[in-house]
Fold each of these.
Amino acid sequence: MLDGEPLVRWRWLGDHLGYLAGLTGDHAVIALVPVLIGLLLALPLGLACTRWPRLYQPLAAVFNVVYALPSLAVFVVLIPYTGLATRETVMVPLTFYALAVLLPTTVDGLRAVPEPVRQAATAMGYGPWHRLAAVELPSAVPYLIAGLRVAAVSSISLAAIGALIGRGGLGYLFVDGFQRTFPTPILAGIVLVALLALVCDLVLVAARRLLAPWAAGVAR
Amino acid sequence: MIRFEGAAKRHPDGTVAVRGLDLEVPAGRTTVLVGPSGCGKTTILRMVNRMVVPTGGRVLLDGTDVATLPAAQLRRGIGYVIQQAGLFPHRRVIDNVATVPRLLGWDRKRARARAAELLELVGLPPETARRYPAQLSGGQQQRVGVARALAADPPVLLMDEPFSAVDPLVRAGLQEELLRLQAELGKTVLFVTHDIEEAVRLGDRVVVLREHGEIAQLADPHTLLTAPADAGVAAFLGRDRGLRGLGLRPAAEVPLAKLEPAYDGWQLTLDPEGRPVHWVHGGRSHPVPVFDPARDTLRSALDAAVLAPSGHAVAVDADGRAVGAASRAAVVAALAESAAPSPQAGAGAQVNHA
């Protein structure tokens, strides 16, 4: 850090508001679209795993291995296919990470329906698929949202690493500030990443209140 | 009417749950299957709605083999109540109760109106309708379970240990409620329990089972308690079955005498309405054990006679006014009077179903 350089140059912030907003939007897309796609993939996969339980262990193992791969390495491997500094190069691995979190929570949620509830549903004349849609899926909502909260926050944090290959939304502020030994963008990046994560989390909590008002205290 | 014809269930691993049951369950009555755990009673119950498919024999519902009916259609016509209620946690109480009508294609408004009627029928206050199951007590959840089973007005009700998971006081309340409901609705009820007390209280007919679903005895509760078929049944019935049998006979069998001014120095004080207040003797006073000949059982009359310091049970009418008295000797004489099966009085307000 340069002597005499203040921690925050308010002037710089004021001059770059549009730039910061643009990076935040880019970051949100790069980080959250994969979570949505992950959710859309996790639902059918989770349903399949409940119907055919033998599927679950191998699938979970595959996604755990993927989750263990360092994100930077995966970005580099993908560059020849999806290009340097493209959104896709960052979003594809993030989708897999999101899926690795969401698949187990989906399966847990679908399995969380107590046996008596399942039996009562059958005894009232629900067929297996109808029951899945009317009983198991709604019961899984609190679990799904709990999974989404973890997946969204981790995706927002991982997306910043994309800056190292040229597409990381707010992550670019860290690279920039570090290279220029200029702390203001770094601090702005930290605050904005944290704010983005916080807003996402609040939205998801509100969604749970709305979609599963019965679930107070069922799953976090 | 439900009829089991050699209905058997053998599991894939070769163990036999039910060897081959022949049983008729009459329409409009309560038939209780009672036996130790593992005797196959739940398996038998589930054969009716095809939750269990027999590996031998068949089950007829009003003359039709249930195996020939589509499962969903069959089940929507049969109410089913289980031990933990099995309410849908994500649906409000009213929508839980409206489930089967909705499955049958009723519109939401009509289904909810019906559900509200049923909540009232099972004695739940209207404000419970908007709650979620987790916000109710165990006893309330069971009531909702019963309401849900009755919602589409099915002629047949299957109940699998529905009251076993609640505490004894709540259980007694639920049993009384079921007797009242059944007197009103006259469903064909098949009820499973391991509790012989519950069986004789609720059943018009009690089927005592031993292992593999074999019938040890099939009888009305009074016959069962007074004339068990063999030592095994007698052991299952427990020690004070004679005394418990009195709980099935109406207190009206006790002849009443006019109230005397005093018995051995014990005087009965009455309030202005004529309701008993105290037994008084010198400086001592004692609460007054009473029975209502129109509603109580011989067991209550005997209990009142045993507890009364004067040795006389006071009979009261529905408003609690004293209408007569019965000495211990008179009660005991009534006990000995008739061992013949009598119309079941049950505790509370059960009426004769015949």
Amino acid sequence: MDGVLILLGWIGLFAPTALGAIGSIVGCARAGQAACGAMLDVESGYGRFVGLSALPSSQIIYGIVVMFSLQRTISADNGPGLFGIGVLCGLALMFSAMFQGACCASAINVSKHKPEIFGLSVAPAAIVEGFAVFAFIFALVLSGNIPA
Amino acid sequence: MSRSYHTLIASLPPLPKHFDVERVPISAPRLEERLKMLAEEDAQVVRQWTGFLNWDRQVLDRTDEDVAKGYHEMMARISNETLREMIEFRMDTRTIIAAVRRRRAGLPPPTGVGQWVEQIRGNYDHPEFRLQGRFGWIGKLDQALQSGEAMVAQRLLFEANYRNWARMAERFTFSFEAVLLYLARWEIIDRWTSRNESAGKLRFETMITETLGEYAHLFK
């Protein structure tokens, strides 16, 4: 039984990084593809499209920070706690990155011929980022309560 | 994992709210170039759609029965649900137009295809075949045909189709269906913007050739 709990602990420890990376890969790829398409259609403003398409990369950074905050000697006592916080935080980061990528792709698509709405069109992506930050901060807070 | 259409969709300029603009937002050769981004399987569906649009501008000697037969053969080959829905809508529209014209000429209801054939037959004496809730333009089309205003009738039909495609497009963002609906609206704008003298002359010559065959060039 102890072995299973320790295994769960290891999964929880790496989950924020792995799931955050998956989310960032999908999100950046979607937004990046839209940026490439927009570049075919307009004559300027390429930089901001590429910059916006990198927005979903923040989730992998949050994931790495959470992983370090969870890092400790894994035992049967702290394995379930590490698993719960790590996996749930990782899932939140993954989905937020994927859907933020979709928001960025839409923002790129609608603002390419209407540059004046660029700032406003980024707002949905920023709101999604806010939810990722919630998951990140409270994972850090709760990680302090897991036995070392 | 579903196929991604982000690059293609983002590379297409936005379409206007209304079809009656001066020029198409993207030229036909450039659009064709962009569509090369599609995978072969999707390109095949696009070819089916453009093939239908060409078929839709039918030759004059085709009977209603020929059209119905061609329609059923084509639908048997198409599996994409959105494309089927688009073709069905277009054919419903054609059936209604045929019914309005035939009634005006004192003829019985057309053979027609689609879901409204029986409704039209059962309500042939009603000015709008009791379809006014779904096709609000039937009465106006009838009036336009009565007064011989071909351009008004054409505009009405383009407007109805364009609005329908735009409404359907709201359900899709970066998907293949969005590409198909973009092409459907682009085609209407293209037809509208190319309604000029040379296009009319070409169409007239095509009709003459179709009607007279080898005698069309007798005096050339």
